[in-house]
Specification:
With 289 residues, the chain is of the alpha/beta class. The chain is 37% helix and 18% strand. It is built from eleven helices and twelve strands. An eight-stranded parallel β-barrel has the order 5-6-7-8-9-10-11-12, surrounded by five helices. A two-stranded antiparallel sheet has the order 1-2. The chain is globular, with a radius of gyration of 21 Å. The structure holds 3-methyl-2-oxobutanoic acid. The site of 3-methyl-2-oxobutanoic acid has 11 residues, from β10. 3-methyl-2-oxobutanoic acid (KIV) binds next to β10.
Length: 289
């Protein structure tokens, strides 16, 4: 996809003006897995802001406005305190900054578990306020009825099984799941229940590799792995982890860059130039005509 840039005179920022093109759709993503096979793996990254979305969009099939924004953007200790307002506002920004990927928004903790009706109200609000195409929710069999309820009423749902961070207080931590036979069977059963309920894709997070493969083989919809297996039908990472914004990241993260060091060193250079009065220089100053 080629993108040109246009100066926005009201903000003086350069906004991309994409070539006319159609955004991918949920049915197209679902159809990437046919007869149990996915030829080209699905690419998903998290995005929380319009500019981040502009940069990631051409390279992705899906952008996930993850509730990981609680920790990544807001410095919260977990995803539990994340609100509907946060999710709707960041999802709207990501939709504004993207033209190609399907935008999926996480349903925050407490917005969907009580009943299918409550889940519908929350999901409808997120889609109406943001323009995102689909929601993601955590949990397996216990959420299957809710997933079916939403799908029948026009809301595409991505499931999420294995390590489900909103359940950290029940799980007792963020360790890999599926090490015991009982837990492994439950994860496969959870994924099957979501698939049968009509989920268009399922995130499989933090499970031992044989379970990720078993889940991928057991369901008809695509699986998207994170800390799972390259044999999943797609992969997702938290973008800020991938960019190296944090010193400590889970074992399954590959840091493709060290952006934290770049930011820190750039800030140090700026601070030094302000202090020795070499910034601003002649190129940054206005003079009388
Ligand atoms: O919130 C999030 O970013 C997620 C991904 C890690 C899958 O759920």
């Amino acid at each position: 996809m080629s993108t040109t840039f246009q100066l926005d005179t009201s903000t003086s920022r350069a906004n991309p003006t994409p070539q006319p093109m159609k955004r991918l759709t949920v049915p197209k993503i679902r159809a990437r897995k046919a007869d149990g096979e996915t030829e080209e793996p699905l690419v998903m990254l998290t995005a929380y802001t319009a500019r981040q979305a502009q940069l990631l969009d051409p390279h992705c099939d899906l952008l996930l406005v993850g509730d990981s924004l609680g920790q990544v953007i807001y410095g919260l200790p977990s995803t539990i305190p994340v609100t509907m307002e946060m999710m709707a506002n960041h999802a709207a920004a990501v939709v504004r900054g993207s033209y190609h990927s399907v935008v999926v928004v996480d349903m925050p903790f407490g917005s969907y578990e009580a009943s299918p009706e409550h889940a519908f109200e929350s999901a409808a609000r997120l889609l109406k306020e943001s323009g995102a195409a689909a929601v993601k929710l955590e949990g397996g069999e216990a959420m299957a009825e809710t997933v079916a309820f939403l799908v029948k009423r026009g809301i595409p749902v991505m499931g999420h099984v294995g390590l489900t961070p909103q359940a950290v207080n029940v799980l007792g931590g963020y360790g890999a799941r599926g090490r015991s036979d009982t837990e492994a069977e439950k994860i496969v059963g959870d994924a099957k229940a979501l698939d049968e309920a009509g989920a268009f894709a399922i995130v499989v997070e933090g499970v031992i590799e044989p379970i990720a493969i078993a889940v991928t083989q057991a369901v008809s919809c695509p699986t998207i792995g994170i800390g799972a297996s390259p044999r999943c039908d797609g992969q997702v990472l938290v973008t800020d982890d991938m960019l190296g914004m944090f010193e400590r990241v889970p074992r399954f993260v590959k840091k493709y860059e060290d952006v934290a060091t770049t930011i820190s060193e750039t800030a140090a250079r700026y601070a030094a130039e302000v202090r020795d009065r070499s910034f601003p220089g002649p190129d940054q100053l206005y003079q009388p005509k």
